[in-house]
């Protein structure tokens, strides 16, 4: 990996959360199904929810209401969406850390970077109100000098804005910044921001291989980056 950074470590590493550091789908699926059941709709199940995670809570709810990856938003009754979204936020707020788990290698890799004084930021599409408590629960908050949720800025990934904002905050140039993520949104945001990007194979990429989006490096475990 050092070949990407002039033989050195990156100055800044930006991490995605869901599907990269945290296997959060069990709880996202629980909250999605609780929402659907409260609306007297069929539960979706974990496999479907796994392919719907990655574009933030609103899009997850739209996908769950339509059963479609690319929902026609105009077909969703706005009142139903509002009820569904409120239910989802309420359910997920209660269960977000019940069954979610860190992936193998995550703590070791964060510790390794931290011991080498590499700066780290977290850039997720998850709403910030869930992100901060989850980082605290899993004792990850201590690693990140900046945490951006999907609703922290005007745009979320795949838009490069959150990555550009983070690089600006840390005064790091794109060619010395590494993005680590699990989905095409992470890869596209990094490519648009001009940063090298590592994709993990174990996360959620809407059922598609990450290789289809040409990340610079693909790993099955973050420890392969040591
Ligand atoms: O909440 C989501 O949809 C995904 O969040 P992520 O950007 O951490 O993968
Ligand atoms: Mg992700």
TrEMBL record:
GO terms for cellular component: cytosol. One of its GO terms (molecular function) is phosphoglycolate phosphatase activity. Gene3D superfamilies: HAD superfamily/HAD-like, Putative phosphatase, domain 2. The active site is at residue 16. Its EC number is 3.1.3.18. The keyword Hydrolase applies. Mg(2+) binds at residues 16, 18, 182. Its cofactor is Mg(2+). Pathway: Organic acid metabolism; glycolate biosynthesis; glycolate from 2-phosphoglycolate: step 1/1. The keyword Cell division does not apply. Coiled coil: none annotated. Keywords: Carbohydrate metabolism, Hydrolase, Magnesium, Metal-binding. It comes from the Bacteria. Pfam families: HAD_2. It catalyses: 2-phosphoglycolate + H2O = glycolate + phosphate. One of its GO terms (biological process) is glycolate biosynthetic process. Specifically catalyzes the dephosphorylation of 2-phosphoglycolate. Is involved in the dissimilation of the intracellular 2-phosphoglycolate formed during the DNA repair of 3'-phosphoglycolate ends, a major class of DNA lesions induced by oxidative stress. NCBIfam families: HAD-SF-IA-v1 (TIGR01549), HAD-SF-IA-v3 (TIGR01509), PGP_bact (TIGR01449), PRK13222.1-2 (NF009695). Belongs to the HAD-like hydrolase superfamily. CbbY/CbbZ/Gph/YieH family. This is Phosphoglycolate phosphatase. It comes from Amphritea balenae.
